[in-house]
Description:
The complex is a heterodimer of chains A (209) and B (224). With 209 residues, chain A is an all-alpha fold. Chain A has helices at 11-14, 17-33, 37-53, 58-65, 69-82, 85-108, 111-122, 132-162, 173-193.
Amino acid sequence: MIGLYLPGRTPLHRAPAGLKLALLALGVGVLLTLDDLRWLTVAGITILGLYAVARVPPRVAAQQLRPLLWFAAFLFVVQTLLTDWLGATALVVRLVLAVALAALVTLTTRVSAMLDAVEVLLGPLRRFGVQPERVGLVLALTIRGVPVVAGVLGTVRDAHRARGADGPPWRLLVPVLVRVLRQADALSDALIARGVDDEAERRTPSVNC
Amino acid sequence: MIVVDGVSHRLGDQLVLDRVDVALAEQRIGVIGANGSGKSTFARLLNGLVVPDSGTVTVDGLSTAKDGREVRRKVGFVFTDPDAQIVMPTVGEDVAFGLRRSGLPKAEITARVRDMLARHGLPGFEDRPAHALSGGEKQLLALCSVLITAPGTLVCDEPTTLLDLRNARRVGALLAGLPQRLVLVTHDLDALADFERVLLFDAGRLVGDGPPADVVAQYRTAQS
Lengths: 209, 224
């Protein structure tokens, strides 16, 4: 779902990140107010048009929504039982369109541009002790962390299978957590080495000695 | 010059460095020793990632304990696992990360990143997702991300350990051609043949210090 940046030179790629984030907030806000399926269809066509303008291949566009499908299906069933199918459909369509819109911003905006925008947006909070560059860094690390954690999960799952240990997925939780924490420890060393943290504390090496 | 003066360091109850005294002025310095001998902790002393329990480490007169920020500008560090040191999602953004606070115009940063990647085996990789690179390419990216800030010294802690032979040679060739002073922690003893000086650690002590042929022979004898 973290689509990452899709290189391009379309108007959507060139638009300022801050503007895109503001329009995304506005767009999602408008979507939340729409109940009529006709208007939701118009919104869907508009978003499809934006994907076309951004020249996002259909396969990549589908990838953005695939992780949402099971949740959307579950939501549809629950809402149909609780309300009616029309209301459930509107809710699910709103959700899918909102995620599609957010994914479009991710696909057409470099993370570094997003960080710059976040830092500008949070700038006024400096007087309250907020460090916008740290918030931006956390966001970047979160996005960067998704494929890293996925890789760790794959490695641990393979290791379990190689030992013939098939079982419930929750058995992977502890080894995955341990590896992710070790990665996080190593990453904190790397951030210090790259000058992010000015203060060198007495530290425990995370690998070898 | 890097001066390590009377340095001892503990990790928990274990003494990992024991009264180490050494001054490093050469351009190519190798660090060898068995696993757990203290060589990685020694490497981490050199840019202040580890501040010793006792003794001092200075880089061009700057103390790693007091002037860590300035020291880290002078001494870059490359880790064993490139995945652990890549911060940004795309290649170009990760290399540019070190210049974010440099005050350089964006166009200049972009040009420098493109040039850095082209010169070090990753031409045109700017927009590639970092997680999709091969192990060798990730280590090249990690090197580029450190070199973009132009440190005078580069400390590499087993940078080729996780790589296959082809990629290890690729990274080794890149390191060999760098103008920076290089401190290389490695188990690849053949890679040190052209180095000016090799340090041998054993149980936290500096037990060998001299030309590669002598110190590597000493290590091989001790290990046999």
